[in-house]
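Try it yourself: sequence plus zinc ion, in.
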Amino acid sequence: MIVERIWAANELRNYHYVIACGETGEALVVDPLDWQACLKVADDRGWKIRQIVNTHEHKDHTAGNAELVKATGARVLAHARAASMIGGVDQGLVAGDVIRVGRSAELECLDTPGHTLAHVCLLAHAEGSALFSGDTLFNAGVGNCRGGGDPERLFETCALHLARLPPSTRIYPGHDYLQNNLRFTRHVEAGNQAAADWLARSENVPPEQRPVLTLAQEFTVNSFFRLGEPGLIETLRQRVSSLPARPTPREVFLALRELRNSW
Ligand SMILES: [Zn+2]
Ligand SMILES: [Zn+2]
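Structure, out:
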């Protein structure tokens, strides 16, 4: 399995992914917005784009579908409940579906509600795990819930599902928010040295060359996975008066998501 990450160089800082089978040259594109950039990468490598997956229904993940289908004849796959919102979807995905890319790549569909209620993440098992996480999980952060989502569901997706994936899983999010999110981690966890280190390491690194973090690394810098940290709870209690002295992980997550909305 070959993964090419493409940065859209837009204000929303979208990332696209072209996933290819090195044996057959068949390729799948995740969330094409800048569809021409995706097509160019495939053409340059001699790959044929056969499938498009939208992680969810938001326009910045789907707006390139029609043109890319016109150019390649690719099939469009998306969460079964997102299909009618997106339009032109050939196959609705449910949890456990496996998408094959040529002979060497397999992507397992995870049902990951929260950012929206019809969001899939794709888990690849080849050569170590990799997660294409759309707007559910970002580097050092998680998606917001303002566009049709639900923070309670996002907590369950992150804490009960994504946090239990193999720690070596490489994370491929839908946007480049690494630096801004690391600054938020420093805001709520002033003593988080790992966040300070990653911030320093990613300074002056163009988005195309940003590091790919593993889930284990996310556990050190992503406060949404660090819900029992005393320093984090202390900071949140100063800002969110309703948070009890001994909050549950769910209460910490919800308070953190709320604070991040206004930060
Ligand atoms: Zn979104
Ligand atoms: Zn997005």
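One thing you can check immediately is this: The first helix runs from residue 35 to 45.
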